[in-house]
Amino acid sequence: MSWRTARPVLALRNLGRALGLNRLVGSWLVKGAYEDRFQAAMIAAIRPGDVVWDVGANVGLYAGKFSDIAGPSGKVFAYEPSPANLQRLNEAVASRANVIVVPLALGRRDGVAAFEQGSDRLGATSRIVDDGKGDPGGRIEIRVASGDQLVSSGVVAIPNAIKIDTEGFELDVLLGLSRILNEDCLRVVCVEVHFGLLEGRGLPDAPSDIERLLVSAGFRVDWPDASHIVATRSR
Questions:
Q1: pTM score over 0.70
Q2: CA distance 65 to 11
Q3: Exposed, middle or buried by CB within 10 Å (0-12, 13-18, 19+), for 165?
Q4: Under DSSP, is residue 149 helix (H, G, I), strand (E, B) or coil?
Q5: Distance between CA atoms of 155 and 104, rounded to whole angstroms?
Q6: Separation of alpha carbons 128 and 116, rounded Å
Q7: Distance in angstroms (rounded) separating the CA atoms of residues 124 and 85
Q8: Less CB within 10 Å around the terminal CB: N or C of the chain?
Q9: Which helix (H) or strand (E) holds 111?
Q10: Which of 169, 164, 232, 226 is nearest to 34 (CA)?
Q11: Which of 159, 112, 119 is nearest to 140 (CA)?
Q12: Parallel, antiparallel, or unpaired for β 75-79 and 99-102?
């Protein structure tokens, strides 16, 4: 397992977050725009004809890039549960025949969940909430489904590449992909790991659990920066 998810390192991250130091240190260590190395590695892993899952598609910034690379012989399944984000996502991909918008969240099992729209301009901080905090009046109910079930029921195709950015729900998404993660055709899984949100949900060991799931499924796990995983098939 990576040193990044060792318990002493996670404890230091939590302390740095509490002291407001993490962003300062991160901006010093990571030169250039945030996510640049992650985005470059993810884009480089996708091939023409691929089936790509954009889990947490938001307003379609990555879905458009994936669509261009996958091309007319590929498909992009863009998962987004937020009604506000969905409107902008549908508008963004309306002219892209190879993008299929799936209006739900992925999780470990089928069901419903409470959802809170982010206040940022792009709605990027919108997330599932299960901590009982915040304003209950500002929440809506959304549908959640496991990726394994969607594939087995024929709703979506098995992916060659997966991107996951779900604001602290990334472990739940992966737990719902236990069969898919072991498919040889799945070459790459790219995950934004929200350490603070996972800690806030009472899941301090989730980052190491995420690594363990990917490694046990035969992936090599690399960290292009402090908050992103690019896992590639090693068998």
A1: yes
A2: 36
A3: buried
A4: helix
A5: 12
A6: 6
A7: 9
A8: C
A9: strand 111-116
A10: 226
A11: 112
A12: parallel
The amino acid occupying position 231 is: A
Q: Longest C-alpha distance within the chain, in Å?
A: 49
Taking the C-alpha atoms of residue 51 and residue 184, their distance in angstroms, rounded to an integer, is 13
- Per residue in 183-217, pLDDT (tens digit) is 999 999 999 999 999 998 999 999 999 999 999 99
The kind and range of the H/E element at 203 are: none
Phi, psi of 186 (to 5 degrees): -80, 110
- 34 pLDDT exceeds 90? no
Residue 23 scores a pLDDT above 80: no
- Asked whether the predicted pLDDT for residue 19 surpasses 50, the reply is no
Tell me the CATH class for 33-233. alpha beta
Tokens for 73? 């012989």
- Check if the beta carbon of residue 89 is closer than 8 Å to that of residue 80: yes
Give the span between the Cα atoms of 58 and 80, in whole angstroms: 6
The 3-state DSSP class for residue 10 equals: helix
Provide the 3-class DSSP secondary structure of residue 73: coil
Indicate if the alpha-carbon torsion angle 109, 111, 114, 117 is positive or negative: positive
| Cα gap 156→55, rounded to integer Å | 13
